[in-house]
Amino acid sequence: MEIEELVQQLQQLLEAKEYRKLRELTEDMQPADLAEAMEEMDVQQRLLLFRLMKKDVAAEIFAWLGQEARGELIEKFSDTELTAALEEMALDDAADILEEMPASVVKRVLAKSSKKTRDSLNRLLNYPADSAGSIMTPEYIRLRKDMTVTQALDVIRREGENSETVYTLYVTERNKLLGVVSARDLLLAGPDQTMEELMDDNVISVQVTDDKEEVANELNRYGFIAMPVVDSEGMLVGIVTVDDATDVLIEEATEDFERMAAMQPSEDSYFATSVFKHARNRIPWLLVLMLSATFTGMILTHYEAAFAAMPLLVSFIPMLMDTGGNCGNQSSTLMIRGMALGEIEPKDILRVVWKEFRVALLVGVVLAVVNGVRIWIMYGDFMIGVLIAVTLLAAVVIAKLIGCMLPLGVQKVGLDPALIASPFITTLVDACVITVYFTIAVQMFSALQG
Question: Alpha-carbon torsion 254, 256, 261, 267, what sign?
């Protein structure tokens, strides 16, 4: 069913006050679809619909709602309603939502929560924002090594409903992580086999203080459904599931895109961010780039005599600068992607430079020949065609080398490569291209006149 159709259906049932049908409909819908439909409704309809749902359904929908829609509901909720919703949610999702709320609201909600929930949420909220601890959940199934398969299955039936996953189970002794057992292992094993026989004791885990992006990349690398999180003593404190890892990777990719476009990253969605904040995030970098373009202007001023002698040269500047900037951006984008995926590291810089140099030669020769011939035909001047061809080849080589080396160099000193992506590379390449262009032009025409 299309989201627009679902919105209409929900609104019609609300207007007709057919609340029983509405409740049944919400139980059968996918939470993600229902949350998207609710975001299209006004806040009063959203609030009424939320109150008509079963508690567990409402809590799941609440976790799927966007930040803006969720914030509007929170403003309308009583403390009791908000507490009930958070009690039904997975603890890691509840902690994420609490981080978005004002401190006064968080304090009231925690005061009304059960002691178990309050203790778990306080522990999650105290971890650094970018750590594995901030995205992990303490809701997982733990087993003893002397348990049989039959006993383990009983534990899953008893605790599975409140656990984040039942596909990966953790064998512990006094909370120390010993091994991992999958649900598949249990289903294929005999009823009297023990966890010690079945478990894989070669456990891959992460520290609670590890960076959450590194944890997400590790999950992706090994193809795990969940990654165990341990403290400095090897005690199991939680797990990071694949859905949380996906959220982290999306968040990090969004930040990189914003930085590559010369903007300060924003935690809010586009529509939830005010016009003033959008402007504030963009102005600083635009000012920096505008001032950095002064160097290009100074170079152009230096070659003012060349303009006067050969005005036609000016008409080729935009094409040369754009081509150089595009080539630099191609290389930098590949470098940033490769570093994000762990395919390229700063130590690979010589291999990268050699490869990009060869690519640049091939690309440069093709562009140089095409443009040189085009200009010769259009303007009937063979020497200008040669000048543009030689400049293009040099510009492509320089741009691709800058585009591959700068991100690697910046990461080597511990900065984010996305910071110096397309805007800074374009400015630097522009200055280099103009310098090369007029240097070659002056030397070439001086030689001809001499």
Answer: positive
DSSP symbol at 190: -
Q: Would you call 223 helix, strand, or coil by DSSP?
A: coil
pLDDT higher than threshold 80 for residue 222: yes
- The candidate with the shortest Cα–Cα distance to 47, out of 24, 69, 26, is 69
* Average of per-residue pLDDT values in the chain: 84
Identify residue 2 by its one-letter amino acid code.
E
d(CA 347, CA 412): 9
Measured between alpha carbons, how far is 178 from 95 in angstroms, rounded to an integer?
A: 28
Residue type, 303: Y
Distant-in-sequence, close-in-space partners of 449: CB < 8 Å, separation ≥ 6: none
Residue 17, sorted as left (phi over 0), alpha (psi -120 to 50) or beta, turns out to be left
- Residue (of 96, 116, 124) closest to 243 by Cα position: 96
Tokens of 188: 């294929």
User: Looking at the whole model, is its pTM more than 0.85?
Assistant: no
Among residues 135, 156, 185, the one where a domain terminates is 135
Strands 226-230 and 206-207: parallel
Residue 280 lies in a domain: no
Backbone φ/ψ region at 280: left (φ over 0), alpha (ψ -120 to 50), beta: alpha
362 part of a folded domain: yes
Task: Determine the Cα–Cα distance for residues 79 and 81; give it in Å rounded to an integer.
Answer: 6
Tens-digit pLDDT profile for residues 125-180: 778 878 888 888 888 999 999 999 999 999 999 988 888 889 999 999 888 999 99
Structurally, how many domains does the chain consist of? 3
Answer yes or no: are the C-beta atoms of 177 and 234 closer than 8 Å: yes
**211 in Cβ contact with 131 (< 8 Å):** yes
Task: Clarify whether residues 305 and 436 are in a common domain.
Answer: yes
The per-residue pLDDT for range 251-280, each reduced to its tens digit, is 877 777 666 665 666 666 666 677 888 788
Q: Per the domain annotation, does 179 fall within a domain?
A: yes
Residues 313 and 418 in one domain: yes
Residue where a domain stops, chosen among 135, 164, 185: 135
Question: Do the Cβ atoms of 227 and 170 come closer than 8 Å?
Answer: no
